[in-house]
């Protein structure tokens, strides 16, 4: 671990899925940067350094897609923060999990204190994955979990480090107030839970709902690389009804300011993406969830937002009725503020332990 000279700031490596053109992870990075104590300078893993620099002016960056560069960066820092999101999982790929495990083990080998911030745990589909993650977490300094399932799994593993649990840190992201509008915004993503028939049912429901409400429909690609092609894929399969196609516009989420502007003037946001759901709800905009993952359902339940589970068959009448109800009854400002207050546990844990590390270095 690097020693400090007089009046020198400590350096922390922020390791996450940053600079990958995913607005949800951009929001996480902004919240994390805002919660760092002043005595720390961030070094950030990011693919697109220019895009990440707009979120964290003055920070330094390392190519997150180069494991060797990330490991060399560990030689320059006094602490490692892994956050946020569900990074310790093998549902996306085992290769992704292995990347983060190697980073964590190298940090442990170099005696660099490790904090997990705003983390989810799993899914861990392989027995070997569960064993490796459990063994790795035994050497962590402190953890803040973003959901009860992750927290309780860590408790079952009898991990002894300080742990707290609170709602996703993005609930703390500042947001403008919703001013009302006419647009229907869709933050959809590809998912194996919807086959051809499932997409047909969902798209027919969207056609009926948008026709009844007279709404323009904005397809907002929240993850530029993964979501942008969804419209073309559905259109090529001739699944999008003619009326819905005529009312639809495609937009790529370019910045958090742009997204907040769109949400602030929408009549309803229907979101599969977790952080699209949270960012829409924090503005006060009427919001409904389509849950492809338990974390989406859990966030909707916390905010008392309507949701439908994509693991179960969809029904057009059920969906349209729920969306009409969601437009009439957005989440209350008091419930959103309560979530903001509860999510502050991530900041408290992070600052407490980084300040303790800094005092030991001084």
Put the structure in a nutshell:
This protein is an alpha/beta fold and about 350 residues long.
Question: Could you name the key traits of this structure?
Answer:
46% helix; six-stranded parallel beta sheet; alpha/beta; seven-stranded parallel beta sheet; 16 helices; single chain
Span between termini: 13 Å
Q: Could you give the count of β-strands?
A: 13
What is the string of helix and strand elements?
A: EHEHEHEHEHEHEEHEHHHEHEHEHEHHH
**Widest sheet: strand order?**
3-2-1-4-5-6-7
The proportion of residues in beta strands is: 15-25%
Q: How much helicity do the residues have?
A: 40-55%
The Cα radius of gyration reads: 21 Å
Describe what this molecule looks like in 3D.
Helix content is 46%, strand content 20%. By secondary structure, the protein is an alpha/beta fold. α12 links the parallel β11 and β12 (287-291). α7 (196-213) crosses α14. The chain is elongated, with a radius of gyration of 21 Å. The mean pLDDT is 94.
Secondary-structure blueprint of this entry?
Blueprint: E1 10-18, H1 23-35, E2 40-46, H2 49-55, E3 60-63, H3 67-73, E4 79-88, H4 94-109, E5 114-121, H5 127-137, E6 142-145, H6 148-156, E7 163-165, E8 183-187, H7 196-213, E9 217-221, H8 224-227, H9 230-236, H10 242-247, E10 248-252, H11 256-263, E11 266-271, H12 274-283, E12 287-291, H13 294-302, E13 307-309, H14 316-328, H15 333-343, H16 345-361
Parallel strand pairs: 1-2, 1-4, 2-3, 4-5, 5-6, 6-7, 8-9, 8-11, 9-10, 11-12, 12-13
């Amino acid at each position: 671990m690097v020693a400090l000279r007089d009046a020198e700031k400590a350096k922390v490596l922020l390791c996450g899925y940053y600079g990958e053109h995913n607005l949800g992870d951009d929001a996480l990075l902004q919240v994390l940067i805002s919660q760092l104590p002043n005595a720390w300078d961030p070094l950030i893993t990011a693919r697109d350094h220019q895009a990440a620099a707009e979120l964290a002016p003055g920070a330094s960056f390392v190519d997150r897609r180069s494991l060797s560069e990330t490991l060399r960066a560990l030689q320059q820092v006094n602490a490692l923060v892994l956050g946020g999101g569900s990074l310790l999982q093998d549902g996306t790929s085992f290769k992704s999990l292995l990347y983060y495990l190697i980073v964590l083990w190298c940090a442990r080998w170099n005696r660099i204190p490790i904090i997990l911030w705003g983390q989810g745990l799993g899914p861990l589909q392989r027995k070997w994955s569960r064993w490796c993650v459990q063994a790795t977490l035994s050497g962590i300094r402190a953890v803040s979990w973003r959901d009860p399932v992750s927290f309780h799994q860590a408790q079952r593993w009898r991990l002894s480090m300080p742990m707290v649990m609170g709602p996703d840190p993005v609930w703390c992201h500042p947001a403008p107030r919703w001013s009302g509008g006419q647009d229907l915004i869709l933050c959809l993503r590809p998912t194996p839970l919807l086959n051809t028939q499932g997409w047909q049912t969902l798209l027919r429901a969207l056609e009926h709902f948008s026709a009844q409400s007279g709404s323009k429909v904005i397809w907002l690609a929240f993850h530029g690389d993964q979501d942008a092609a969804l419209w073309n894929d559905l259109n090529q399969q001739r699944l999008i009804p003619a009326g819905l196609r005529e009312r639809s516009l495609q937009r790529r989420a370019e910045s958090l300011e742009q997204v907040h502007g769109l949400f602030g003037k929408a009549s309803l946001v229907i979101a599969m993406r977790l952080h699209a759901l949270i960012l829409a709800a924090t503005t006060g905009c009427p919001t409904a969830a389509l849950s492809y993952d338990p974390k989406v359902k859990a966030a909707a339940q916390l905010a008392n937002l309507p949701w439908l589970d994509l693991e179960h068959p969809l029904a057009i009448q059920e969906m349209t009725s729920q969306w009409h109800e969601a437009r009439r009854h957005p989440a209350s400002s008091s419930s959103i503020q309560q979530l903001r207050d509860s999510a502050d546990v991530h900041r408290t844990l992070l600052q407490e332990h980084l300040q303790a590390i800094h005092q030991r270095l001084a």
